[in-house]
Predict the structure.
Amino acid sequence: MTPGAEVSALWTIPTAAFLLAGAALALIGSLGLLRLRGFYERVHAPTLGTTLATVCIAIASMIYFSALESRLVLHELLIVIFGVVTTPISLMILVRAAVFRDASQNRSSFPRTGENER
Amino acid sequence: MSMLLTWSIAVAQILLGLAMACAAYRMLRGPRAQDRVLGFDTLSVDAMLMLLAFGIKSGSTIYFEAALIVALLGFVGTLALAKFLLRGEVIE
């Protein structure tokens, strides 16, 4: 079955636009993970994929399934809420673990911005 | 107009595949353990987005549940690995 066979162009165009935007944002985030130098710079990049790319692809999926089943389908909202809630938790614990490891091993990559900050 | 959706899904899957390759490179070649954990987290998120793209391609909502499970397991795995790096054991 070809996708979008019975979905009109009014709904396939925003679906395609949001899908491509989300995939491009996820690729940009992963490229940042690949290209940035230190761990503390690298940890910022994939959040682009977990927030904006997830929202874009979930919106594309919601538009497409709402048009396909001709009713409002919103269950992709669960993935968005889950991603927005869990990403800061896991990355904060991961950065705390990295700070702990760097501080205990006296690594030079440990970011020191001030005397009192840690 | 279904041609547009077919091609945009194919391009989006190629882009998400490249993103997964970048995350897998960082997971396999990360200089330190936290880089590998970060690569695993990104890989799970990209796999979840890839499953959503598969769901749009096939037109069934089964892939949505698979994406939700991948997101859940990625979160739990990242949390357990970060906790292991922090303390040396997962459950204290």
